[in-house]
């Protein structure tokens, strides 16, 4: 029994990559089940109910328990990624979601997949680095990575499933499409890199640039850029969870006034830097800020001494990336006047010590990659089967 594992952001790269992996597996094993899972329990159930000699496990949102289990295997795993804005366009077009939940879903996928970035045999397949690469070279790299030998006829059949046309006399390499041409044929929701999906409003796109773009690439490395969770991503407790569009009213009893935004963060230590601006005297009001997922991660208290802008920081540790982060802002006493004119949160990843003797990760097309023609067979003796769940 052979188990292949493929993670990836929702998008064209993942859709094409898993189709290619399925084509290869069907050539080698004759039959192959492809199952999407998010938890170890789902993986175990899929394993018990398998009906073929090979299984492809895919996931956009693996939880901590599943990642911990898969980290124990020495099998290579494929990770399909692309620019986060392109991935968001694809997810929006596929699901019809165009609002803040779209940004939350993307942050969840980035954070969840980043849990396996320290696996020594991760192979990153990055759309933004493809360029005009013909797909036979990508298939060849998949085969070498997974230790699979394909016959000439098997290679041709895989290429045909991915959009190559060898009909007519004297087929040659010029008939093999590039990745983007192949993907456009296979993916009904295909959009070229860098395109803007008009269904996503400029406001949501601006939020995504603040929240998601700094995480671009963090699947394969510790985040090195801070990000902003802006005012409009938080919710007003007094107005049944309406988004904040202007100042935050403080008049009334002691209460939670702001909560959200339910974005996800990759595992690790983080600093939350809170920015507040108070334009009206609030006479010694004390604020409490809490950071939660399924448990309380951090709590601080702030007592502004006057009007103006204030900065406060809280450190916290993320261990379960699939759990969204909720920040709550409380007043500790009632107010007869006052408001917060500005509120935002900057998330800053703590620097991680460099790991010594860490193997260099292979890219999709290493510099020493040889031309993979339709007559080539790839030879590898490496074991590629993961342990049974």
Polypeptide structure, described:
It is a single chain. With 389 residues, the protein is α+β, with helices and mostly antiparallel strands. It folds into two domains: 2-186, P-loop containing nucleotide triphosphate hydrolases (Rossmann fold, 3-Layer(aba) Sandwich); 223-349, Jelly Rolls (Sandwich), CATH 2.60.120.260. It contains nine helices and 16 strands. The protein has helices at 12-29, 40-48, 64-70, 84-95, 100-113, 135-146, 152-161, 179-186, 202-211, and strands spanning 2-8, 33-36, 54-59, 77-81, 122-126, 227-229, 235-236, 242-243, 248-249, 256-263, 268-278, 287-292, 296-302, 308-318, 325-331, 339-349. A six-stranded antiparallel β-sheet has the order 8-7-10-15-12-13. The protein has a five-stranded parallel β-sheet with strand order 2-3-1-4-5, with helices on both faces. Strands 6, 9, 11, 14 and 16 form a five-stranded antiparallel β-sheet that branches. Helix 1 packs antiparallel against helix 7. The protein is elongated and about 85 Å long.
Q: Topology, pairings included?
A:
Layout: E1 2-8, H1 12-29, E2 33-36, H2 40-48, E3 54-59, H3 64-70, E4 77-81, H4 84-95, H5 100-113, E5 122-126, H6 135-146, H7 152-161, H8 179-186, H9 202-211, E6 227-229, E7 235-236, E8 242-243, E9 248-249, E10 256-263, E11 268-278, E12 287-292, E13 296-302, E14 308-318, E15 325-331, E16 339-349
Parallel strand pairs: 1-3, 1-4, 2-3, 4-5
Antiparallel strand pairs: 6-16, 7-8, 7-10, 9-16, 10-15, 11-14, 11-16, 12-13, 12-15
Helix pairs in contact: 1-7
């Amino acid at each position: 029994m052979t188990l292949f594992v493929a993670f990836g952001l929702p998008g064209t790269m993942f859709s094409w990559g898993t189709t290619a992996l399925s084509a290869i597996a069907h050539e080698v094993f004759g039959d192959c089940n492809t199952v999407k899972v998010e938890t170890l329990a789902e993986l175990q159930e899929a394993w018990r109910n398998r009906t073929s000699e090979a299984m492809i496990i895919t996931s956009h949102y693996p939880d901590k328990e599943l990642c911990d289990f898969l980290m124990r295997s020495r099998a290579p795993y494929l990770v399909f990624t692309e620019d986060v804005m392109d991935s968001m366009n694809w997810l929006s077009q596929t699901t019809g979601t165009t609002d803040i939940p779209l940004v939350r879903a993307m942050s969840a996928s980035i954070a969840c997949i980043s849990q396996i970035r320290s696996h020594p045999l991760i192979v990153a397949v990055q759309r933004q680095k493809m360029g005009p690469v013909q797909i036979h070279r990508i298939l060849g790299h998949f085969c070498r990575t997974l230790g699979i030998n394909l016959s000439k006829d098997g290679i041709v059949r895989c290429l045909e499933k991915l959009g190559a046309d060898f009909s007519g006399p004297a087929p040659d390499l010029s008939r093999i499409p590039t990745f983007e041409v192949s993907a456009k044929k296979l993916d009904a929701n295909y959009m070229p890199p860098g395109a803007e999906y008009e269904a996503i409003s400029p406001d949501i796109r601006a939020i995504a640039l603040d929240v998601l773009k700094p995480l671009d690439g963090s699947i394969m490395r510790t985040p090195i850029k801070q990000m902003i969770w802006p005012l409009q991503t938080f919710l007003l407790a007094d107005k049944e969870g309406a988004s904040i569009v202007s100042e935050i009213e403080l008049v009334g009893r002691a209460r939670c006034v702001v909560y959200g935004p339910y974005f996800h963060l990759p595992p690790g230590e983080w600093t939350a830097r809170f920015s507040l601006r108070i334009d009206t005297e609030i006479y010694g009001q004390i604020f409490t800020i809490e950071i939660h997922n399924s448990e309380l991660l951090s709590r601080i208290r702030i007592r502004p001494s006057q009007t103006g802008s204030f900065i406060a920081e809280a450190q916290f540790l993320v261990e379960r990336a699939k759990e969204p982060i909720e920040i709550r802002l409380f007043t500790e006493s009632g107010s007869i006047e006052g408001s917060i004119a500005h509120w935002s949160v900057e998330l800053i990843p703590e620097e991680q010590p460099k790991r010594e003797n860490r193997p260099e990760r292979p890219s999709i097309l290493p510099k020493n990659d040889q031309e993979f023609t339709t007559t080539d067979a790839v030879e590898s003796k490496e074991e590629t089967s993961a342990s049974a769940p």
